[in-house]
Amino acid sequence: MPEGSAGGRQRGVLADWNDERGFGFITPSSGGARVFVHITAFPRSRRPTLGCEVTYAEVRDSRHRARASTVRYLSADRTRRRGGLGDPLAHAVAATFLAFVAALVLLGEVPGWTLGIYLLFSVLAFLIYRADKTAALRGEWRTSEITLHLIALLGGWPGALAARHVFRHKTTKQPFRTIFWATVVANCAAFGSFVFAGESVRTLLRSVLQV
Q1: pLDDT digits (tens, 9 = 90+) for 139-196
Q2: What is the Cα Rg of the chain in Å?
Q3: 132, 96: one domain
């Protein structure tokens, strides 16, 4: 059986999708031209999303153009295995850290701009991961891994962590995963040092004022 087929069906990735107009294109796993697909070819139980893996039957329309029919999504269990930690845990880790930073701001332990930096770089990381995933599917210009790691190191790792699992992007590739978690550890260590340094400065100022 040729690669990219399953029981006489073709396998591919939804590489382009216009949700408003309800159509897009599937890139076959076996290679070749993209195949047109309409919303009516998908199961009604789930809305198509960019980057989802599917199987489909290739048919021809009245003008002899290829199009996908009876599209089926690949196993959700398979998708979760490829997602590493899984979406809920990834989102929980990112949200918990941002909530922790927000709590420190409210308590006056760190300045407000600290949370602003984390939020700004997290949003930036999320958008860049989404763009890079789309570029990968379309074979277009990619964002360098150095850039992705730098954004994570500067404080965008919560957004990057969420994006990796939302778009199933860079979740299994090595050494990217190892370097990514190294940037997370480095950023958290730097943030911890910043918090404790701030506390030391405040203690010193109180001592001076008391004298």
Answers
A1: 678 899 999 999 999 999 999 999 998 887 887 778 999 999 999 999 999 999 888 8
A2: 23
A3: yes
Same domain? 188 vs 150: yes
pTM of the entire predicted model: 0.59
Domain extent for 70: 5-74
Q: Same structural domain for residues 114 and 173?
A: yes
Among the three residues 31, 51, 74, which one is the final residue of a domain in this structure? Answer: 74
Do residue 48 and residue 149 come from a single domain?
no
Residue 26 corresponds to which tokens in the numbers above? 């599937």
pLDDT tens, position by position, 142-152: 899 999 999 99
Sign of the torsion formed by the C-alpha atoms of 19, 22, 28 and 31 = negative
- Structural domain total, the chain: 2
Same domain, 94 and 20: no
How would you write the chain as a 3-class SS string? CCCCEECCEEEEEEEEEECCCCEEEEEECCCCCCEEEEHHHCCCCCCCCCCCEEEEEEEECCCCCEEEEEEEECCHHHHHHHCCCCHHHHHHHHHHHHHHHHHHHHCCCCCHHHHHHHHHHHHHHHHHHHHHHHHHHHCCCCCCHHHHHHHHHHHHHHHHHHHHHHCCCCCCCCCHHHHHHHHHHHHHHHHHHHHHHHHHHHHHHHHHHHC
The answer to whether residues 146 and 163 belong to one domain is yes
